[in-house]
Amino acid sequence: MRPSETPNRQTHLLLPAQPETLPEIPQPEALELLRQWLDYYRLGQTRPLAFFARTSLKAAAELAQNKSVGDAAKAAKDAYYGNKNSKGQRDYTEVGLVFGNDETPPIE
Prior knowledge:
The chain is mainly alpha-helical. It has 4 helices and 2 strands. Strands 1-2 form a two-stranded antiparallel sheet.
């Protein structure tokens, strides 16, 4: 959102070490992004969202190392399902209570 007399729609992040300017998002794209965010917000108000912090962190770590999306998905699945050395998030009591009866695994 911007005042009508301002031609520039960039976002400026004023951080002490590194100020940053984000480019303008075209209005149709911004409206679509807002629609998606509101859809997820409404969804989150009606049922638990399948967000697993440890699983997501593993995927993010893979992507941060410039690995492929496939590698990130594999790391996330490994964190969710676990292995011989560590219990996966699927085995957490709270995950089983909320998502245990779903036909499709929540990580999918």
